[in-house]
Amino acid sequence: MLETLRHIVQEVNAARGLNEALQITVRRVREAMNTQVCSVYMRDLAGGRYVFQATQGLNQELVGMASLAEGEGLIGLVAERGEPVNLEEAENHPNFQFLPGIGEEHFHAFLGVPIIHQRRLLGVLVVQQAERRRFDESEEAFLVTLSAQLAGVIAHAQATGVVESQALDGAAPAKIVGVPGAAGIAIGTAVVVSPGADLYAVPARQAKNRRAEVRAFREALQSVQEDIQRVADNLGSELSPEDHALFDVYLSILDDSTIGAEVVGLIKAGQWAQGALSQVMIEHIRHFERMEHSYLKERAVDVKDLGTRVLAYLQAASHEVKTYPSQTILVGEELTATSLGEIPREKLVGLISVRGSGNSHVAILARAMGVPTVMGAIDLPYARLQDRELIIDGYNGTVHINPLPEIKQRFQQIVDEDSALSRDLESLRDEPCVTLDGHRMPLWVNTGLMADVTRSLEQGAEGVGLYRTEVPFLLRDRFPTEEEQRQIYRQQLEAFAPKPVTMRTLDIGGDKALSYFPIEEDNPFLGWRGIRVTLDHPEIFLAQVRAMLKANEGLGNLRIMLPMVCNIPELDEALDLIKRCHRELSRGGLAGKLPPIGVMVEVPSAVYQARAMAKRVDFLSVGSNDLTQYLLAVDRNNARVARLYQSLHPAVLMALQEVAVAGVAENVPVGICGELAGYPGAAVLLLAMGYDVLSMNATSLPKVKNALRHIRGSEARELLEEVMAMDYADEISRRLERFLAEHGMEKFIHSPVE
Prior knowledge:
By secondary structure, this protein is an alpha/beta fold. The protein is 45% helix and 15% strand.
């Protein structure tokens, strides 16, 4: 049965749309279970009914026509219970309801299982037999297992199918739900970026010059054939005739009369070469993957490899100069810091990433840049969005394709309101962040790009609570030299002087990968990252610390912060290395005292050892993004569990309070540099907890300042006491929104546009 399951899931995965996926499902399930009927009823959210959507064994003419209301019949019972219903005599059950015309009156045995994806009921999968019998436990288990495996595939096919057929083919409006990445609204034109030589990520485009595209394809084909022939010749003496014959197979696959001819045909029909190649190769890959014979099935790998090689030559030969519209929305399967850096900032208005969550590294950078972003839009057919008009709602995590004029007008109104709010908040730039009862709260910024500097100073930042030193590393193809680092750090320190600048030592690993220093791990967030990497490579750590200390000469506004510290020995070792650097530079004539050194509290062990760490350092700073991730066991890049990533979770608030108490006990200042600090409602709670500094992205700073200037410390403490007694993150969130509204700050609350 396991092999059968795998084959069915594989086939359904390769389907080109929802209808094909359902047809494969009912056909293969009926065969596997040796039943007379297999059907799927899909839930129609708009109509509130279960539609007879696919069948093998019943009346095909009523597919898409017959339906049952919610709660009706045995289908409604399965849906309501959310578990299998297994009956020997279906018509004797009180919930049985006859559907005229579909032909089920001859069938008695009934087994229905729900199709559930991420707690959302998609439909019901049913098998039936004329024989009066109860399906046995193994049959029920098989159908339940299959349904669970197919649910994600069907959900994706359902979502993308609607978008592709309606929005892309017919230019009808469509809405895709993702995860909020960076607040704001963006209206613009899609520019699709794809990783190099990835057949599955080639955007759909029309050929501008068909002859040139055909010529480019044939040249790429010829180059790959020559490469293969060269390898075959070089290995001729080392391989047996049978093994050597494999190269002839590879060459025949690429022959102009087979796959090559198919690609040329699509180009002549109007597709560009890369898109035509991608379509043909993927079809052939899926064909081989569906084969029963293991040898033939493995040929899918060869086809993919050959297609990738041809694509690489095509991409290398294109040398196309990218042009960006004035209102560019960058779209990709997985956007990176590098892709952000390739587009002129003045043209970039929004970002959409199919993968990742609102707290992945790219989303954090987007917030720092003030670019509205949606992450985790897994149902987005991104490759077909080139040049489409899009609207991004970064507040609620939605993408609107081909929006209706009235929807576009509503969003434009929000854009205008946001602009007016920004202008209103500009007047606060030089004003201190002081509560109504006189409590002073320093507001700092998180930076990483030089572009952040001007934006931060314009917003009235009083210092830098987190400078992400990994950003210059991410934007290069090698480790920057010590001198290159010194120059970069000096620019940051000079730009903010005499205001303090907190530089985090290199924090790579997790979702921050260096192309030239790859870290391949099954579980990167629990692996080799942060301080663990740099302590294992002291040459990297020492060079960076020396660069920081040299950059600080004559300025004295540097603070050094250590990431991902989870135990005291790590802290002691890092402190020893920093002090060693300082001693060596001092002997060489470098003036200046040792800068303040702090620890980022971003793992649970650091929360519980906060007092011990505070005794050894000059400050503590909570990294709430990672701390939330580790406390809740939620991978912040996983869109599937994004809803569980709750910064206002009671456990997170308790941990934050514990760190604040530890700082007070040891008379050490405590700040926070996670994204939570940039939410006005959360800032009120952090003030009440006793945090000394809040550090956030520059765009959030005026909002937080405005919020704190509208409240009293006593009100904040009352609110904190109230929410700390709550058990639900949603309840806490609603209470904070109500608090903001009560204090005249409804402008910071954004409801979805329908």
